Amino acid sequence: MKILITDPIEESCVNILKSEGFTVDLKPGITKDEIKRIINDYVALIVRSGTRVTADIINEAKNLKIIGRAGAGVDNIDVDAATRRGIIVMNTPGGNTISTAEHTMSLILALARNIPQACEDLKSGNWNRKKFIGVELYGKTIGIIGLGRIGREVAIRCKAFGMNVIGYDPVVSSEVARKFGVELVAELDEIYRRSDFITVHVPLNEETRGMIGKNELLKCKRGVRIINCARGGIIDEMALLEAIESGHVAGAALDVFSEEPPPKDHPLIKHPKVIVTPHLGAATEEAQEKVAVQIAQQIVDALKERAIVGAVNAEILQLAMNEVIKPYLLLAEKIGLFQAQILKGKVKSVTGIFVGEMLKNSSQILISAFLKGMLNYLMSEPVNYINAPVIAREIGLSVSEKVSDDSGNYTHLLRFEVKTDKETKTVSGTVFGNNDIRIVGVDEFHFEFKPEGILIVYSNIDKPGMLASVSSILARSEINIAGLSLGRYGVGQKALTVMSVDNEIPQNVLREISSIDGIFDVKIVKL
Ligand SMILES: NC(=O)C1=CN([C@@H]2O[C@H](COP(=O)(O)OP(=O)(O)OC[C@H]3O[C@@H](n4cnc5c(N)ncnc54)[C@H](O)[C@@H]3O)[C@@H](O)[C@H]2O)C=CC1
Ligand SMILES: O=C(O)CCC(=O)C(=O)O
């Protein structure tokens, strides 16, 4: 299996992948067109922030299973396109947290004391001490937007400098924030109103793009200093430039830009009150080593189906590695495949019904497994656990789940009810022992059969001779019956027969069985 790496990465990444038996092509600086031309050969792609993994690359990548980001931000990867194609996107966010928090502190200090400007001035032969008077951090208020991994480490360090730390993050509670010395505020406006320094540590997404613009800067204290070591585009660059030129913002420290590398004559970068670094937050020996090792290990574990760690679009996949859940996933997939082959009409909705605590807790991945089984039969494109819910949504399939205590006699029972424009069909299954999967019900009929191999499924009137008629046709065609299950309402009423056979059923045999009086809806099901 081949893995492509398109950004510079520590050697340890390549060594780990090779030692696990993978072929690695290291091609930093490769063009987009070249990636598109060769990507089909690879099962995994590893990038840092230098490669934009766009939908057109992803659509060429027919064999790609994983896109690995050696680092935190996945905004350079079209995660939706990857999910649609069933490709896992994973990152290694923890590996560069400390380095980025330390770089943020370097920028805060350098901004407060004009260090880059003073350094440049002295190197050009001057000795200006007055020109570079700065401000102390001690006693100042810093507003941290985004109290995730990096935001929290920045908070701890700012506290050590005697700063008053306030923060905003919609998912962090006041109690958690307090542990890091942060006073959580309820509104961003309070950050703008109270802060002497503002630092952003949020991901770049539709919500955060341009979140600090002209209006927000106007709400800030006069003389505020702004730091961005997260992503370019979170702060509107032109609005920031205007606010600095007007004197409302005293200065800015930027590690990241809306376009990277930025244009050479970028007026914000050129401004004397702005200090910049070329996306160096994670650029330490330690961070690069950590993310290189982490991404290599995560990719090996995922490709060898040992564990899924760091997936940003497939959290549920970790459950697919759970040995206890695995047989139920196979069962759900087989039920989906079975349903797809016996249903009449166009599928409108699917409801997963789960009995037993373990199944209730795994409902999402069980539904994905069912959809994988059903949609792979009904559609021409490959469907897996990752893209199954997306494809279901796209084709307008309504998917829901219910919990139930109606278990029959089973501790754990899966039931999938599918509604089409013509009928409703419910199929239930369970697992005996550790991994003996069984279908135990179709609609109101109870029986037990292994969902595997070739099955003949038909409805019939429960009267003598039905089975004999079918078996004599099969015998004449030298088709061996391997197993038989019968479910019926009552004597003389409707019944359902599931017959497992050892050989393929030719069309003429199928027609002959279908023509038997009292037998209808004959289907060949392959599982
Ligand atoms: N300059 C560099 O080299 C590096 C930059 N980064 C960037 O730093 C940023 C933070 O990274 P981590 O701390 O690892 O991420 P994280 O995922 O641990 O934390 C992000 C936090 O932002 C919060 N958040 C999301 N939307 C928000 C909003 N609208 N308002 C306020 N808070 C919001 C989330 O709830 C979360 O707590 C990311 O943009 C990442 O790409 C990360 C590593 C290196
Ligand atoms: O790969 C890098 O050096 C950039 C790191 C980064 O921006 C991230 O991890 O989000």
Describe it:
α5 crosses α7 and α17 (363-378) packs across α18 (388-394). The protein starts with a strand and ends with a strand. It contains 20 helices and 22 strands. It has a seven-stranded parallel beta sheet, sandwiched between helices. A six-stranded mixed beta sheet has the order 14-13-15-16-17-18. 35% of the residues lie in helices and 24% in strands. By secondary structure, the protein is of the alpha/beta class. The chain has four domains: 2-93 and 287-313, NAD(P)-binding Rossmann-like Domain (Rossmann fold), CATH 3.40.50; 97-276, Rossmann fold, CATH 3.40.50; 322-451, D-3-phosphoglycerate dehydrogenase, domain 3 (60s Ribosomal Protein L30, Chain: A, 2-Layer Sandwich); 453-527, 2-Layer Sandwich (Alpha-Beta Plaits), CATH 3.30.70. It binds 1,4-dihydronicotinamide adenine dinucleotide and 2-oxoglutaric acid.
Strand-helix topology:
Layout: E1 2-5, H1 11-19, E2 23-26, H2 32-38, E3 44-47, H3 55-60, E4 66-69, H4 79-84, E5 88-91, H5 97-112, H6 115-123, E6 141-145, H7 149-160, E7 164-168, H8 174-179, E8 183-184, H9 188-194, E9 197-200, H10 214-219, E10 224-228, H11 237-245, E11 249-254, H12 267-270, E12 274-276, H13 285-303, H14 317-320, H15 326-342, E13 347-355, H16 357-361, H17 363-378, H18 388-394, E14 398-403, E15 413-420, E16 424-432, E17 436-442, E18 445-449, E19 454-461, H19 466-476, E20 481-488, E21 494-501, H20 507-514, E22 519-526
Parallel strand pairs: 1-2, 1-3, 3-4, 4-5, 6-7, 6-9, 7-8, 9-10, 10-11, 11-12, 13-14
Antiparallel strand pairs: 13-15, 15-16, 16-17, 17-18, 19-21, 19-22, 20-21
Helix pairs in contact: 1-13, 5-7, 15-17, 17-18
The structure holds 1,4-dihydronicotinamide adenine dinucleotide (NAI) and 2-oxoglutaric acid.
